[in-house]
């Protein structure tokens, strides 16, 4: 049995260690009983250091363009991976499934590690079939490179799945875009993820926030989550470091796989 299954200390490497999340993750791993921070790797460091240090799990908070290479490297070297980096669409998930095929390596991709955000996604999916309309507003710090956020994309996918399973009718929207001959500006209705409109705000002072707006005749419901500090993600990251080794081999998407919710 490996350390990841609860028999001792799990050795952790952090990719993106100098970044906003990476620094917080290194501190959280150092403070967590049962975890040992053995390698801190940023853009100019040799990832081989993780192997030499005996890392059993690597945490990746880098850039959407860098994560796939890091996963390939870890898979080749038998290291499980906890991915927080956003931009993990279906095509990338399929790529990871293919490269893990026939290995014992586990990769957990979590669009959001905060318990509140995981619950927000679940509540939104539960509520969606009871409302005609659903739209998502995600609000983040302006240093974020991707839009829409991974959390908003995942929420839209879960909401769309719930609406499809319930046989919901298409959402009402009379808007004619300029390309359809209407007045106004292209983009004013946001980006469509699985037909769910997603609006991205980038504002100095913010960290990570999201509202899911649901509406039907005579009433609306707003589900809002706010990460006011990157500390909100750390219990989820620590849990993932400890438990990813207990998941089935291959790819798992969503922290909820490790939570009893
Ligand atoms: N799942 C979740 O709960 C959360 C996910 N995120 C996501 O995490 C990611 C990181 O966010 P954040 O920390 O704010 O971003 P930062 O830009 O602050 O950090 C990323 C770090 O990774 C470094 N880096 C780039 N390429 C590599 C590489 N190949 N190997 C090792 N390090 C590399 C960067 O260096 P350089 O700047 O020199 O390129 C930088 O230091 C984003 O995709 C964000 O959306 C963020 C918060 C929570
Ligand atoms: O870049 C961030 O900060 C965050 N990114 C993740 C995302 O894209 O959803 C998670 C959280 O929203 C913070």
UniProtKB/TrEMBL annotation:
Question: Where along the chain is (S)-2,3,4,5-tetrahydrodipicolinate bound?
Answer: 141, 150-151
In what pathway does it function? Amino-acid biosynthesis; L-lysine biosynthesis via DAP pathway; (S)-tetrahydrodipicolinate from L-aspartate: step 4/4
Subcellular location per the Swiss-Prot or TrEMBL entry: Cytoplasm
Q: What reaction gets catalysed by this protein?
A: (S)-2,3,4,5-tetrahydrodipicolinate + NAD(+) + H2O = (2S,4S)-4-hydroxy-2,3,4,5-tetrahydrodipicolinate + NADH + H(+); (S)-2,3,4,5-tetrahydrodipicolinate + NADP(+) + H2O = (2S,4S)-4-hydroxy-2,3,4,5-tetrahydrodipicolinate + NADPH + H(+)
What is the active site of this protein?
A: 140 (proton donor/acceptor), 144 (proton donor)
Span of domain Dihydrodipicolinate reductase C-terminal: 116-256
The record's region (Disordered) falls at 167-188
Which GO molecular function annotations are given, in alphabetical order? 4-hydroxy-tetrahydrodipicolinate reductase; NAD binding; NADP binding; oxidoreductase activity, acting on CH or CH2 groups, NAD or NADP as acceptor
**Pfam families, from UniProt?**
DapB_C, DapB_N
List positions binding NAD(+).
16-21, 42, 84-86, 110-113
Ranges where the Dihydrodipicolinate reductase N-terminal domain occurs: 10-113
Q: Which domain of life is it from?
A: Bacteria
Report the GO terms under cellular component: cytoplasm
A single GO BP annotation from the record?
lysine biosynthetic process via diaminopimelate
Record key words, sorted: Amino-acid biosynthesis, Cytoplasm, Diaminopimelate biosynthesis, Lysine biosynthesis, NAD, NADP, Oxidoreductase
According to its UniProt record, the EC number is: 1.17.1.8
Matching NCBIfam families: dapB
> What is its quaternary makeup?
Homotetramer.
Please state which protein family the record places this protein in: Belongs to the DapB family.
Functional summary from the UniProt entry: Catalyzes the conversion of 4-hydroxy-tetrahydrodipicolinate (HTPA) to tetrahydrodipicolinate.
Protein name according to UniProt: 4-hydroxy-tetrahydrodipicolinate reductase
- Which species does the entry assign this protein to? Catenulispora acidiphila (strain DSM 44928 / JCM 14897 / NBRC 102108 / NRRL B-24433 / ID139908)
Q: What is the gene name?
A: dapB
